[in-house]
């Protein structure tokens, strides 16, 4: 089956000036050769430290930002070759739910206008039909018609995020990009919103690209996991499998940092300690970009970039020289 969304070798380089005294321009490799697919009705989680390229990846995939190179296939259609009305129609099938529920809702607009605005794409712009549809959307997310003419600040953070979700649903999207969508909420409210997203997925057949720095949240939501480091995917695979048995040293480090997490690879937990800061994205390390922090780095790591290799047996992928000669096991 065609995945609802597939990105192939997506690249975004931003030009930067290195300094004022003519030391020349460089590039920030914000996203550097990212590939993944989201099957219909499934959730792909994107994890990694801030600045690893997660949000940029989402913005490239729905073309809020133009990629430097690569391919985006939405429901089999080449999104980057699409223009005009066709592009608008395709993009209306991809929506975003952002981190800050208040910041992403216009404080001067009523719920009716906020949720109803995207309906104009479908020509449902006025009258009873619009009122009926907005009311239906509000009920879908656990609000009601009584909320139609209230303003965002009259709602709690969790309710405001429900408004953001109702707005995202207005165009009947196939894919929703959730970029830290529950990070700003209290833990108890987080659970309610996550369960709402899960229910909507079941009922509407939605697919999610789910970005979060909180690994417990991602673990709860994602069927598949992509781990990013400095603009690249370093590990990818079935979410439960990756959590149970992380292969890449960076994934091991991330999981070891979860409070109370006890990975099967206990040795890795002891050894995968962060060494140093994340390098500057405008001057990534040679070879494996993780080598400056990797507890297992050896000579080859500074000279040669490891390729992301997929094991045909398990579908799992990791980019690490230590994993080159075997499809099973990892550094331990
Ligand atoms: Fe560590 Fe080398 Fe593997 Fe990179 S390639 S993760 S530096 S062992
Ligand atoms: Mg981000």
Summarize this structure as a short list of keywords or feature phrases:
single chain; 332 residues; alpha/beta; Rossmann fold; 3 domains; 8-stranded mixed sheet; 4-stranded antiparallel sheet; 11 helices; globular; binds iron/sulfur cluster; binds magnesium ion
What's the quick description here?
This is Peptide ABC transporter substrate-binding protein. The chain contains eleven helices and twelve strands.
Description:
The chain has 332 residues and is of the alpha/beta class. The protein folds into three domains: 1-93 and 173-222, P-loop containing nucleotide triphosphate hydrolases (Rossmann fold, 3-Layer(aba) Sandwich), CATH 3.40.50.300; 104-171, no CATH class; 252-332, no CATH class. The protein is 30% helix and 21% strand. It has an eight-stranded mixed beta sheet, with helices on both faces. Helix 5 runs parallel beside helix 6. The model has no long low-confidence stretch (mean pLDDT 90). Iron/sulfur cluster binds at residues 249, 288, 290-291, 294, 296-297, 301, 306, 320-322. Iron/sulfur cluster (SF4) binds next to loops.
Strand content: 15-25%
Which ranges are low-confidence, i.e. pLDDT below 50, for 5 or more consecutive residues?
Answer: none
Query: What is the count of helical runs?
Result: 11
Identify the CATH architecture of the largest domain.
3-Layer(aba) Sandwich
The helix/strand order is EEEHEEHEHHHEHEHEEHHHHEE
Largest sheet: 8 strands, mixed
Structural class category: alpha/beta
Q: How far apart are the termini?
A: 37 Å
Q: For the largest beta sheet, what order do the strands appear in spatially? A: 6-7-8-3-9-10-12-11
Please give the radius of gyration in angstroms.
Answer: 21 Å
Specify the overall morphology: globular
Helix content: 25-40%
């Amino acid at each position: 089956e065609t995945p609802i969304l597939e990105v192939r070798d997506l690249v975004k380089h931003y030009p930067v000036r290195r300094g004022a005294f003519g030391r020349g321009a460089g590039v920030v490799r914000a996203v550097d050769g990212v590939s993944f697919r989201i099957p219909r009705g499934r959730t792909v989680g994107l994890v990694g430290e801030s600045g690893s390229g997660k949000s940029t990846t989402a913005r490239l995939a729905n073309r809020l930002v133009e990629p430097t190179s690569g391919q985006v296939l939405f429901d089999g259609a080449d999104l980057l070759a699409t223009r005009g009305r066709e592009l608008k129609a395709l993009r209306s099938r991809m929506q975003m739910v952002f981190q800050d529920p208040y910041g992403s809702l216009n404080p001067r607009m009523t719920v009716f206008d906020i949720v109803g605005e995207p309906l104009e794409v479908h020509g449902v712009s006025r009258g009873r039909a619009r009122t009926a549809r907005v009311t239906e959307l509000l009920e879908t997310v656990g609000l009601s018609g009584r909320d139609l003419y209230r303003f965002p600040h009259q709602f709690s953070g969790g309710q405001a995020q429900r408004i953001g979700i109702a707005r995202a649903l207005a165009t009947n999207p196939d894919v929703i990009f959730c970029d830290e969508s529950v990070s700003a909420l209290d833990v108890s409210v987080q659970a309610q919103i996550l369960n709402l997203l899960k229910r909507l997925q079941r009922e509407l057949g939605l697919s999610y690209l789910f970005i979060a720095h909180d690994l417990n949240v991602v673990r709860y939501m994602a069927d598949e996991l992509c781990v990013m480091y400095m603009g690249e995917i370093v590990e990818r695979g079935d979410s439960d499998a990756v959590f149970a048995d992380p292969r890449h040293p960076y994934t091991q480090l991330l999981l070891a940092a979860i409070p109370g997490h006890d990975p099967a690879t206990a040795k890795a937990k002891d050894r995968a300690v962060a060494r140093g800061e994340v390098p500057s994205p405008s001057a990534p390390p040679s070879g494996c970009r993780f080598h400056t922090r990797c507890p297992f780095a050896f000579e080859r790591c500074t000279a040669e970039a490891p390729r992301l290799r997929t094991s045909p047996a398990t579908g799992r992928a990791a980019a690490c020289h230590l994993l080159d000669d075997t499809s099973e096991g990892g550094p331990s």
